[in-house]
């Protein structure tokens, strides 16, 4: 008889996680909103303003990719019992680990810097202070809550602000689009092969499938199991079919919400800014103007609330993700359940990443342009990381009997191919 691997062993029962339908959907919505961070808002708004309705097909194309990437990351944390980079360290040679963790951490840093800049630009619409000063204050608040409080506290405080993202849905509806024209534009792609168009495609892919999502999702599965009493990795190995089904469902809810929001951000700017000839979003005020059909003079308040709300959700995820990456690559543990005096390295990385992200905003980059380029950088990181995740989740040594089924494999490998092709096309267009 073939010996069973640790990942095949049924784990100790977790505390019940099946909660009411309304609360479960609410948690999924918040997770999806965190994916629509300020970088995502800036990127989608720029795409709609620049190319109008012709950019709408990106939403249905991205949805299955968003789902499969997040699900694979969750599976690694749930079944292997460790975060993504701990798994990469144990399953791949050092020459693969080192550049991967360096580029992923740099990607997190750039994205956090862009998000802090976007938050500063949005708040500057309301507060007559220099954007860099607002950035520093925002970074200090984020780190203070992480260090002296908990991420759960900031999550509870700002989670409902993410619902301001629905303003883009209402704005698009109130702009009275032609339903047939919108449907035709959504299902019939109108692709341009210009470097600018390809850069926005890669940016949309990158900001939807950001590396910080992989790291965070896998480690949150681990954190949840630690909270349930599974403190040793051996206790966390394996997952029941019911647990995997629940994970798949929750990921789908979150990514569906995130995808609907990105669709309507593109649609609202395509219906308002693009026809007016405002093809480039150079400031937060430009992006806020897309909400004017809904809110008039109050548009800037809605825009600022949405950006700042999801920013305070997303920036801690990115800085903590960098800490997960580095500590796991060094073979060290890192958990939000540990106090700062219990793991100085973990919190030192959070502090350093937050400080560097804030400092990057003093280099003179336009905050809205930086949001788009952060997505481009993340988009170039997607193919290699996703390739490793596909190999890991098809390895019985890693996930035991929970290797991917044919549907997940088909969707995963298509996502690898599509993201790689877009990245290569962008690089070729630059070289030309």
TrEMBL record:
GO CC field: plasma membrane
Transmembrane segments: 49-74, 95-114, 126-145, 157-177, 197-216, 251-273, 301-324, 345-365, 371-391, 411-431
Membrane topology: Multi-pass membrane protein
Keywords for this protein: Membrane, Symport, Transmembrane, Transmembrane helix, Transport
Superkingdom of the source species: Bacteria
GO biological process: iron ion transmembrane transport
InterPro entries: NRAMP_fam (IPR001046)
Pfam families from the UniProt entry: Nramp (PF01566)
GO molecular function: cadmium ion transmembrane transporter activity; manganese ion transmembrane transporter activity; symporter activity
Subcellular compartments: Membrane
Protein name: Mn2+ and Fe2+ transporters of the NRAMP family
Organism placement in taxonomy: Bacteria, Pseudomonadati, Pseudomonadota, Alphaproteobacteria, Sphingomonadales
């Amino acid at each position: 008889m073939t010996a069973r691997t640790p990942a095949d062993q049924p784990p100790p029962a977790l505390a019940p996680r099946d909660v009411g339908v309304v609360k479960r959907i609410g948690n999924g919505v918040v997770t999806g909103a965190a994916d629509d961070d300020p970088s995502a808002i800036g990127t989608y708004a720029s795409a709609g303003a620049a190319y109008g309705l012709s950019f709408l097909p990106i939403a249905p194309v991205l949805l299955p990719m968003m789902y499969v990437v997040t699900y694979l990351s969750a599976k690694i944390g749930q079944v292997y019992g460790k975060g993504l980079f701990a798994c990469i360290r144990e399953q791949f040679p050092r020459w693969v680990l080192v550049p991967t963790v360096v580029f992923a951490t740099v990607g997190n840093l750039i994205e956090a810097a862009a998000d802090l800049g976007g938050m500063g630009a949005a708040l500057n619409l309301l507060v007559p202070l220099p954007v860099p000063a607002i950035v520093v204050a925002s970074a200090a608040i984020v780190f203070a809550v992480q260090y002296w409080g908990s991420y759960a506290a900031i999550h509870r405080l700002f989670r409902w602000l993410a619902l301001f993202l629905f303003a883009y849905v209402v704005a698009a509806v109130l702009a009275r689009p032609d339903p047939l024209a919108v449907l035709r534009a959504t299902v019939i792609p109108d692709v341009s092969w210009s470097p600018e168009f390809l850069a926005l495609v890669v940016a949309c892919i990158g900001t939807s499938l950001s590396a910080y999502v992989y790291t965070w999702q896998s480690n949150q599965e681990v954190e949840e199991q630690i909270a349930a009493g599974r403190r040793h990795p051996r206790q966390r190995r394996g997952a029941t079919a019911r647990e995997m089904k629940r994970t798949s469902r929750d990921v789908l809810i979150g990514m569906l919400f995130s995808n609907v929001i990105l669709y309507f951000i593109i649609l609202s700017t395509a219906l308002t800014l693009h026809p007016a000839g405002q093809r480039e979003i150079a400031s937060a005020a430009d992006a806020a103007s897309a909400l004017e059909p809904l809110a008039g003079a109050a548009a800037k308040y809605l825009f600022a609330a949405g950006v700042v709300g999801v920013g305070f959700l997303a920036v801690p995820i990115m800085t903590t993700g960098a800490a997960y990456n580095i500590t796991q690559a060094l073979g060290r543990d890192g958990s939000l359940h540990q106090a700062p005096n219990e793991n100085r390295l973990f919190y030192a990385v959070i502090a350093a990443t937050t400080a560097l992200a804030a400092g990057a905003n003093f280099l003179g980059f336009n905050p809205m342009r930086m949001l788009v380029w952060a997505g481009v950088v993340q988009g170039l990181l997607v193919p290699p990381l996703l390739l490793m995740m596909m190999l890991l989740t098809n390895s019985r040594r890693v996930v035991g009997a929970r290797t991917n089924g044919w549907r997940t494999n088909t969707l995963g490998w298509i996502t690898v191919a599509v993201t790689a092709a877009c990245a290569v096309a962008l690089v070729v267009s630059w070289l030309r």
